[in-house]
Specification:
By secondary structure, this protein is mainly alpha-helical. It has eleven helices and no strands. Helix 2 crosses helix 5. The termini are far apart. The N terminus is likely disordered.
Length: 240
Amino acid sequence: MSPSRPAARSTTRPSRNAAKGAATPKPGAKAGKPAQRAPGRPKDLEKQAAILDAAKRLFPLHGYEGVSMEAIAAEAGVSKLTVYNHFTDKENLFTEAVRCRCEELLPHAVFEAEAGPDRVADGLREIGHHFLALISSDEAIQLHRTLAARAMTDTRLAELFYLAGPQRTLEELEGFLRRAIKAGSLKVPDPARAATHFFCLLKGEHHMRMIVGCCARPSAAECRRHVDSVVDLFLRAYAP
């Protein structure tokens, strides 16, 4: 056997093994590699919250037309591009700001309360207390003042506000009343109209006086007495 042939085998075999090793990772090698990122990046929730907080502050003060996306970006401490990345346009941002504020003070879970005969009064009181907290908040009072002041020039603000706030709230209460009817707790011929009556009774004269600046926010004790009287009246009107 020629002495050059073993040398040839010794130079070619490592090359084949190296190529094979490059094509087939060793067991455990994959775990050491960084994880592959999914397409795109998850949106920064802190920035999204900052944008919504800025919108909730600025829209009540300046109205829909009086607030730009640039102003919201500056207030939130983010770029305008970041605002658009989270909310496609100003209408979307305004609607979400109103919806979020309603959900904070009058959450959907409140309307999911039990509606049986022995629980319907408690459910209505809980809804009533949350509703009063919402409409008596500084942001809500300021937004109502802005809506009234700009009623003839900023009609889009009123339309978007109604769809995101009052309409959603009325529909939620209507759903609760329908469950109460089904459970035999109430006899309500027109649940949608009854929902409107309930919220109008809760607003009463005090809410209007707050909007025009005639009085301060009611105390917790005053709110309890008012809600109790409204619920008692409502239950007498729609007793089965």
